[in-house]
Amino acid sequence: MSPRSRNALHLYGMAFSRSGAFLLAGTLVWFVVGYNLFLTGRRSGYWLMLAYALTQSFFYLNSEVLLSFEGYGLPYHLGHTQDPIVWLTFVIGDLNFLAALAMTVYLLSRRRTLLGVPLPTTPRQGPAATTDESRG
User: Tens digits of per-residue pLDDT, 49-68?
Assistant: First the structure.
């Protein structure tokens, strides 16, 4: 076994975790179902995707940003390049964090359009609604 492989084993061990596998499978199902419903224009797809993106954002906020104060997180991940496979995994996590934030912003900023909520058609009140024609 190479020293690089030993480093990865030191970080993660060799034990199989059924609960971890179940959690990963559940996360995949959550995303796939939400994505398919979202593509078909169902409201439930929007809410599943938003919940997924928010969950991912908070997860990576914790693991990339908040753990930096404990000596781990983004600086630790990018600075430890001894094992290229583990380092690449960390970089993919960093990219997932950015993607989750972008997806959250996208879903929230286009909520009305994505949910098919019509824009208000009532005339605006106040000075901005006054035109030369209405002054008589």
Answer: 999 999 999 998 888 788 77
Tell me whether residue 88 is exposed, middle or buried, using C-beta atoms within 10 angstroms of its C-beta: 0 to 12, 13 to 18, 19 or more: exposed
Provide the pLDDT for residue 57: 94
User: If we measure between CA atoms, which residue out of 55, 58, 37 comes closest to residue 46?
Assistant: 37
pTM, two decimals, is: 0.71
Maximum distance among all alpha carbons in the chain?
88
8 A C-beta contact, residue 114 and residue 37: no
Burial of 29 (0-12, 13-18, 19+ CB in 10 A): exposed
Report the alpha-carbon angle 31-62-34, nearest 5. 10
Compute CA distances 119 → 1, 40, 114, 122, 123, whole Å: 63, 21, 12, 9, 12
